[in-house]
Amino acid sequence: MPTLGAGNGILALAASSHSGSVIATDLNPRAGEFCRVNASLNGVDNIEFREGSAFEPVSGERFDLILANPPFFVTPSVRRVYSDNSMELDGFCRMLVRQAPEHLTENGYCQMLVEWVQLKDQPWQDRLGEWFAGIGCDAWVMVDYMRSSMDYALIRLQEDRDELTDPAERSALLQSWQKYFEERKVDGIFGGMIVLHRREGRNWVRMEELQAMPTRPFGDFVRRIFEVHDYLGNHSDEELLETRPALPASAQLVKRFAKSPEGWSLTSVDMQPGEGLPYSLSLQPQVADFVAMLDGKRTLREIADETAASVGVDPAAVRRESCNIIRRVADRGMILL
Fold first, then answer.
1. I want to staple 112 with a disulfide (CB 3.0 to 4.6 A). Which of 68, 83, 176, 191 is the partner?
2. Out of 74-83, 132-141, 160-169, which region has the weakest mean confidence (pLDDT)?
3. CA distances from 174 to 73, 86, 125, 163, 169 (A)
4. Taking a C-beta distance cutoff of 8 angstroms, is the pair 142, 192 a contact?
5. Alpha carbon 287 to chain centroid distance?
6. What's the DSSP call for residue 225?
């Protein structure tokens, strides 16, 4: 597997423990020196460094997994090789997304950190939708942050505070950023992660703004979401009724109460996965009780019919609603199928 934008080799080192071999690539030859030193210090011997830009060092090769931390900053000029690129706006990130599928095996994944712009009168979802058109991959966009063009420029300048000590130089650089964004009608800059999954058939695109940044490992969780999404899209309710859904051991239920004249009154019931991404899904109390019955031993049909009998409701109606619940909860990674 390759890691694009290897830098000091942190991605390559992280991947080395679960990969047969890792290719660390970077445009900067010094990155190779850092990679080799850090690999040696950590006793890792399955990393190979190749110098070059983007996918050039792995031309014609395919991999099960690609990781990328490219120079994605949206800048008017290249001041630092590790963070800036010479392509217009977010063109470099778009190029990587469009080229990545050529280097993925069937069922392979690509995960990359990116930034992209939102132009005036164009939703950012429309802009990214074009990136994924016809590439033969499912795509999941996780938005971490959004900045106005001015705030973005100020943040980038703040990162240079130790080098740009001359107020006049700082002011001139800020004006160049303002002019760059204004001329190109940039309304804002978004940042986050894009995950691609190469797969035959009809592909899907999912875009969402994360409620909070993950503070725990979430790689397996992301893969499970892809697998569940594919399963739900390719199986009918009748087939879903024959599965044996189960709650993950880490699942949590959070209940909130508010003071009322009668005492404490239940205001919300939220289900959380307890692992992976920091999702939270609001449920009706009756739905939460139903989900708690999913033990992985009984089929969904059996649980639905048992519920229908206990409340005296038409079993067919309960089965339909049970499938709707499972699809909703499983799509958030909170149910194992």
1. 68
2. 160-169
3. 15, 18, 28, 14, 9
4. yes
5. 28
6. H
Residues 92, 177 within the same domain: yes
Q: How many domains does the chain have?
A: 2
Nearest alpha carbon to residue 230 among 119, 92, 145, 107: 107
Confidence of residue 95 (pLDDT cuts 50, 70, 90): very high
Q: Which of 247, 253, 238 is nearest to 297 (CA)?
A: 247
Domain boundary (181, 207, 232) is at 232
Q: Is 178 exposed, middle or buried (0-12, 13-18, 19+ CB in 10 A)?
A: middle
119/168 same-domain check: yes
Closest CA to 229 of 328, 323, 100: 328
Both ends of the chain: CA-CA distance in Å? 29
The span from the CA of 66 to the CA of 103, in Å, is: 8
| Residue 333 DSSP class | T
191-247 pLDDT per residue, tens: 999 999 999 989 999 999 988 888 888 999 999 999 999 999 899 999 999 999 999
82 pLDDT higher than 90: no
Cα atoms found within 13 Å of the Cα of residue 303, Cβ hemisphere only:
26
Residue identified by tokens 């740009």 is 164
Q: Which domain holds residue 264?
A: 237-330
What DSSP string runs through 300-326?
HHHHHHHHHHHHT--HHHHHHHHHHHH
Report which DSSP code applies to 193.
Answer: E
DSSP codes joined into one string, 110-159: EEEEEEEEEETTS-HHHHHHHHHTTSSEEEEEEEEEEEEHHHHHHHHHHH
**Residues 110, 222 contacting (CB under 8 angstroms):** no
Strands annotated E in 11-85: 22-26, 47-51, 63-68
- Indicate if 115 and 12 belong to the same structural domain: yes
Within-domain flag for 76: yes
